[in-house]
Amino acid sequence: YYDLVDYLIKNKKILINEPIEGNITALHLAAKKNNIEIVNLLLSQQEIQIGDDCFLNCQRLEKLSIPSFITFLGNNAFKNCSSLISIDIPSSVVSFGKNLFDGCSSLVQVSLPSTLKIIDEYMFNECQSLTEILIPSSVERIECYSFKKCSSLKKIEIPSSVTLIECHCFEGCTSLNEVIIHSSLQEIIKYPFYGC
């Protein structure tokens, strides 16, 4: 199967970023079937993209290391990947979609690159296994609901680069018992720690 897919890619029989059906690409299909060999083969192709909905609802995907030539992650790229435990994002990624890890309930470890400027709405919503996260010093804004219902999150340090924390961003983080905020923070919009 691996050799067949490899042959089809090399002979341009599979257009790796084109939908096979609806919005399902070869990468999405391989991840959905939990065929890690094929996922890694596709991710080794320099032209591969992780666009909108790329791994959406791929509930068997457990770990992923994104290649260093990837520059953007689309909206909902990993949404509802409920078995995803860890993911490494390289510093080549400069554009991050909305709802990126929304519903990744098993996510424990994520390395965020120094290119991240905004933690978008619902980025880590309902990541219930996430106990800690290092927010890079490049981040300037944390948007609404970005860490909502991260019920295992115990500690968060907001770096001095952050000037704005928007509404409800840590709502329902019931295990949160330590928050470090620097004096450089200029604005907090209503109820960022509601239900903590």
Helix share bin: 10-25%
Q: Report low-confidence residues grouped into runs of 5 or more.
A: none
Beta-strand percentage? Answer: 5-15%
Question: What sequence of helices (H) and strands (E) makes up the elements?
Answer: HHHEEEEEEEEEEE
Overall average residue pLDDT: 89
Q: Which features would summarize this protein structure in a list?
A:
196 residues; alpha/beta; four-stranded parallel β-sheet; three-stranded parallel β-sheet; 11 strands; elongated
Describe what you observe in this structure.
The protein is α/β, with parallel strands linked by helices. Helices cover 12% and strands 15% of the residues. It is built from 3 helices and 11 strands, in the order αααβββββββββββ. The strands form 4 sheets. The protein has a 4-stranded parallel beta sheet with strand order 6-7-9-11, with no helix packed on it. A 3-stranded parallel beta sheet has the order 1-3-5, with no helix packed on it. Helix 2 packs antiparallel against helix 3. The protein is elongated. The relative contact order is 0.10. The mean pLDDT is 89.
